[in-house]
Amino acid sequence: MNFGEIIRTEILSRPVKDEHCKRAFLAGMLRGSGTLYEKDGELGLDFKVRDEETLNLLSAYFSQLYGYDIREVSVSEDRLNKKDRFVVSMCGGGVSDILKDLGILKEDKNGYSVNFGLDGDATERDCCFRAFIRGLFVATGGCTVPNTGEENGTGYHLELVFFHSASASITAERLAAAGIRAKITRRRESYLLYIKSAEVIKDFIAFLPAPVSVLKFTDIMINRELTNNSNRQKNCDLGNVSRQVEAVAKYAEAIDKIERLKGLGTLKKELAETAAARKAYPEDTLSELAERLNITKSCLNHRLRKIAQISEEI
Predict the structure, then answer these.
(1) What is the pTM of this model?
(2) What's the fold here for domain 4-209?
(3) Residue 150: which of 226, 227, 220, 236 has the closest Cα?
């Protein structure tokens, strides 16, 4: 189940209010999906968005913060998800100043360099770091949860995608400081910051914050646990039944062998009575058979094991 869309929808439905958090949100979006290039001596930036709602929100933020109007937008196909994505191209017109303000570029005596860390003003405050993670999730995040009743399906998984290991590592450190432990792995040319624990994923969603998604995720966890407990009980019951069936068959074969080769009369009186009762009432459970013989279930088990032993010695 693609739970990432539920989280993303809630993030987009709760627009950022403060300007400093809007900057952080944009920084997360561009860090996750942006590609820098140079054209005719000017710095340019391309980044992808998943839908028109996200595009409109980003356009509003760029306009409010920097007076920059997005004009060049094209459409590309996401072959993996078989959906169209919007590709925004920004070049010249103060793009370098915007990226520097967002902490993505650094300026020194040699010019500009890409800042792969998160040490800029854009993510310094706690609220801004949360906004940064929201923007990053909207750009590249994903979350899957098991379907209820699915025994061997996909487990819990949340991920954020980065183009550079340094960005992934520093984000993981900042999340760890907030009590959210994540791991990093490489997938082709990308670096994935991922979480497999359902509890930690829930903490991550709460950190964003996305309270409605937290409630929905918690409901899935509870239903999944109830289903697993029910399945474990069923498996346990089936296992007990299987063992009982195997035991009945084993003792029936032992009694038949003794009767065929030596006769039940060669057994001691109590064993002969037990063997005869087992043959006469094959459908009885051990408890029912023990009650017929007016003995305990433990005593019945002892007698049957003795009969099986005698059968093996013939």
Answers:
(1) 0.68
(2) Endonuclease I-creI (3.10.28)
(3) 227
